Amino acid sequence: MTRQDPPPPAGGGCRNAPILRQRGQHEVFCGLTGIIWLHRKMPDAFFLVVGSRTCAHLLQSAAGVMIFAEPRFGTAILEETDLAGLADAQEELEREVARLLSRRPDIRRLFLVGSCPSEVIKLDLARAAERLSARHGPAVRVLNYSGSGIETTFTEGEDACLAAMVPDLPETQDRQLLVVGALPDVVEDQALALLDQLGIGPVRVLPARRAGGDLGIGPGTRFALTQPFLGDTHAALERRGAQHVPAPIPFGEEGTTAWLRAVAREFQVDPDRFDAVTEAPRARARRAIAQAAGPLKGRSAFFFPDSQLEIPLARFLARECGMDPLEVSAPYIHKGIVGPDMDLLPPVPVLAEGQDVEKQLDRCRAARPDLTICGLGLANPLEAEGLATKWSIELVFTPVHFYEQAGDLAALFARPLRRRDALQFEAAP
C-alpha cells in the first residue's frame, strides 16, 4: 500500500514570499568552531589554526579538551612581530608543520585554517598549502581554508573546509551518489543502510572518514546535501560537473522521506520498494515525534539567524510538531538548497535574511514567543527577560538527522518548554 505524504501548505509555502533583508549589527559565533566536529569526523586529519592566543583559547574552551588527550587540532600562534610583518612567518610555519608531521605520522590530511583574513595575519595560506603539499605529499595532502569569524558564521567553517577538498578530488565518470555534510558516524551509517536497502549505489560521503579511497567527482556524480549551510561546497561540486539533487534537509519523518524520495527518483527506484523500505522507520519516527512534541503543539517559535538550519527546522516544527513560527531568520537564504524546505514551510509573518540584532530583539520582545531559538550570546539575556530559549549551536552538535533521531530532535525543542512549565507550576501558590 502506498503511504500518502502530508499535503503542501495551503498558502503555497514560502519560496516566493517577501524576504526582509537585514544588514545591521549581527551576533555570530566563530567559524573556527566547525573544527570541533570535523576533527572527530576525519580521524586521519589535523587542523592547524594560524591565529592568535585568543583563537587557541576559544578552541580549547569550546571543545573542552582533556589535558590527557592529544586532539587533532592545534594553533600556530602569531606574535606581534608576525602580525607586524617583521618576522618570516612562512619559514616558521613550515618548521612547525614539519615538526608536527614528524611527531604525528598518522596524519594524512592537514588543513591550514586562517583565523583572520590574510591581510591581517600577513600570510598567504593558499600558497603555503601548495608548497607544503608538494614537500610532504603524496603521503600528506595539505589544504587551507578560512575559519574567520569576521567573514563567516560558525557553520560556514564546515562549508569552507569541504569546499577546499573538492578541487583536490580525482575525476571519475562513474554514476554515483555523493552524500554531502558531516554527520555523526551512527547517523551516517543509518542513512547509508537505508540507501543500500533502496538499491542505490555506489554511495560516497563527503567528508570521507579516511583519506584516499575511491572518492572521485565527475559528470556522473549526483549529490544530496544533509546540511543547509553548504553553499560554497554546492558551487564547488557543480564546477566539477556534479549535479545537485534538490530535497528538503532530512529533519523529521517528513523531511527524511522527502530527501530519500528525491534521491530514489533520481536513481529510478521502484515506488513499491521505496514504500517497503521506508514504512517501518517512518512509523517509528512518527511515534517518537508524537511522544516528544506534546509541549510544542500550539506554541509559537521565533528564530534568530545563527546556524543556517533555521528554515528546515521551522518547517519541521510547523508541520510535524504543530508549532507556529512567528519569525524565521537565517544568515543567508540559498534557495537552491533550502528552496524545497521553503515549499513546505507554511507562510510566516516574517521571513528574514541577515540580521540587525537590536531591531530583531525589539520584534522578539513584542511578539513574546513561547520559544526563541538563538545563539549563545542572546540566550541568557532573553532568559532573564522571561523568554524560554534553545541554543541553536546545540542542534549542530547533537545527532538530529534522519528517521531514528526524529524524536530526539522534537525533544530538544520541547525540553525548554517542559522546564518552563515545571518552574511555573512550582512557583504557583
From TrEMBL:
One of its GO terms (biological process) is light-independent bacteriochlorophyll biosynthetic process. The keyword Transmembrane does not apply. The gene is bchN. PANTHER family: LIGHT-INDEPENDENT PROTOCHLOROPHYLLIDE REDUCTASE SUBUNIT N. It is an enzyme of class 1 (oxidoreductase). One of its GO terms (molecular function) is metal ion binding. Its cofactor is [4Fe-4S] cluster. Binds 1 [4Fe-4S] cluster per heterodimer. The cluster is bound at the heterodimer interface by residues from both subunits. This is Light-independent protochlorophyllide reductase subunit N. The lineage of its organism: Bacteria, Pseudomonadati, Pseudomonadota, Alphaproteobacteria, Rhodobacterales. Transmembrane segments: none annotated. Belongs to the BchN/ChlN family. Protochlorophyllide reductase is composed of three subunits; BchL, BchN and BchB. Forms a heterotetramer of two BchB and two BchN subunits. It comes from Marinibacterium profundimaris. [4Fe-4S] cluster binds at C30, C55, C116. Pathway: Porphyrin-containing compound metabolism; bacteriochlorophyll biosynthesis (light-independent). The keyword Iron-sulfur applies. Component of the dark-operative protochlorophyllide reductase (DPOR) that uses Mg-ATP and reduced ferredoxin to reduce ring D of protochlorophyllide (Pchlide) to form chlorophyllide a (Chlide). This reaction is light-independent. The NB-protein (BchN-BchB) is the catalytic component of the complex. Its EC number is 1.3.7.7. Keywords: 4Fe-4S, ATP-binding, Bacteriochlorophyll biosynthesis, Chlorophyll biosynthesis, Iron, Iron-sulfur, Metal-binding, Nucleotide-binding, Oxidoreductase, Photosynthesis. It catalyses: chlorophyllide a + oxidized 2[4Fe-4S]-[ferredoxin] + 2 ADP + 2 phosphate = protochlorophyllide a + reduced 2[4Fe-4S]-[ferredoxin] + 2 ATP + 2 H2O. Residues 30-410 form the Nitrogenase/oxidoreductase component domain.
